Every structure is written in C-alpha cells, then in structure tokens.
C-alpha cells in the first residue's frame, strides 16, 4: 500500500492541470507520483520543468534516454519507475525486444555500441555510490558529444530523484505501465510490482 494517496485531479492550479492533462493524453493516465507530489505545487512544477528539459529536449534520441532511465531504475531497484520507463520506452519506439533485454544490453544483438556505452554509464551511474569510471566516459565520448553526455547523465540523475521518491512512498503503479512491465520486463527477468502493486 502507498504511504500517501494521490490527490484527486480536480481543483488544481490551471498550469498544473494543463500539464497533468498532457500526461494523460500522451501516456493514457496521470502518474500517481506527481499526484502525490502536487501537495507542494512548486515542487511538482519544478519537477515537471526538469523532467521536460531532461527527457524531451536536446539531441539524444528520446528512446535512448528512456532506456537509460529504465536501466538506472533497475539498478536502483524501483519497480514503479521500471514500469513507467518500460511504458515510456515503448511510447518512444523502443522495441519490445530492447525493453525485455535491456538488462542484457552488453550481449544482446539488438543494442548498438553507442547504446551499450550509454546504458553502461546509466547502470554504473545509478549505483550508490556511483561506479562510473574514466573508461566509461572515454567509451561514451566515442559516440556522443559533451552536451549529449550531459543529457544522458541528467537522465540518470533525474531518476535518482524519482527512484527515491517512488520507492520511499511505495507509490502504487497504474494499470497501464504495470501491464507493459509484465509483458516486457517480466519476460527478461521476472518483473513483479512488489510493494507498488495496487
């Protein structure tokens, strides 16, 4: 059970309601995480602005940022964020094979060397303490420039916040991302919702 229930979606400030409506249109639902966070409107505003800048702006393909965020969430152990990033990876055109085999990125044929370098950095960067090395950065710079590396590291860091938020709050996973996670991540390594189950 969640430690705090999401707030109803009525009576929100207009700017937040507009953004929540956008999430519902693009994802099919409004995430419980931000419906909990909205108790402090300025925190949810700052989060949504950072989320937009990190995941949806720049030149790194959104598909790769979603997969990097998924592997970071897997390394951190947050089942809520794993489900959400499996869903967003699918929305941003990652194949079911890539999503289900993301944990095998080092050996799976469906990943390019550039994707491997980014996912390796995401995996090592999401550990606590971070395990990223100079060798990991030397490798990623073969494929990405400094601005793009900032985007990738920002994706890892964004999910440092979200993984801690949702795992601490035991945020309940919505039906749609839970189903995507079961259909994709469940194939690769037996994904289960754990404490986030409704």
Short description:
The protein is mostly helical and 198 residues long. Helix content is 65%, strand content 0%. The protein has helices at 14-27, 32-37, 41-55, 62-76, 79-91, 96-100, 113-126, 134-140, 146-169, 175-189.
Write a structural description.
By secondary structure, the protein is mainly alpha-helical. It has a single domain, classed as AhpD-like (Up-down Bundle), CATH 1.20.1290. It has ten helices and no strands. Helix 4 crosses helix 9 and helix 7 crosses helix 9. It is globular, with a radius of gyration of 16 Å.
Key features of this structure:
AhpD-like; single chain; 65% helix; 0% strand; 198 residues; mainly alpha
- End-to-end separation in angstroms reads 7 Å
- What's the number of structural domains? 1
Give the helix tally: 10
Helix proportion range? 55-70%
SS-based class = mainly alpha
- Hey, roughly how much beta strand do the residues contain? under 5%
Largest sheet, in brief, is: none
Counting copies of identical and different chains, the oligomeric state is single chain
Q: Under the CATH scheme, which architecture would be assigned?
A: Up-down Bundle
Rg, Cα atoms, Å: 16 Å
Order of helices and strands: HHHHHHHHHH
Shape: globular
What is this structure's SSE topology?
Layout: H1 14-27, H2 32-37, H3 41-55, H4 62-76, H5 79-91, H6 96-100, H7 113-126, H8 134-140, H9 146-169, H10 175-189
Helix pairs in contact: 3-9, 4-5, 4-7, 4-9, 5-10, 7-8, 7-9
